[in-house]
Amino acid sequence: MRDQINELISDYVRQNDLGTIICRHCDDIIDTLPTNSVKTKYMVCEKEACRKQEGSASA
Ligand SMILES: [Zn+2]
User: Are 28 and 42 in contact (CB under 8 A)?
Assistant: First the structure.
């Protein structure tokens, strides 16, 4: 029963969180967004290495 519920929840998430926020340095998925179309946003994750790269890129 629990597996069925989990499956329903993941189906729901898959259908509704089409937007994905990806770290532009390490390609990790940072977060998902509930959008009505497939969207990918590039941001920087919390890893120190990525933040450093971001800092040196803009400096
Ligand atoms: Zn990263």
Answer: no
State the distance from the centre of ligand 1 to the C-alpha of 41, rounded, in angstroms: 13
Number of domains in the chain: 1
* Amino acid letter, 28: D
**0.90 exceeded by pTM:** no
**The pLDDT value given to residue 17:** 75
Range of the domain at 33: 2-58
Q: Ligand 1 centre from 6 Cα, in Å? A: 28
User: What is the pLDDT, as a whole number, of residue 37?
Assistant: 84
CB environment 31-51: b (16+ within 10 A), e (fewer): eeeeeeeeeeeeebbeeeebe
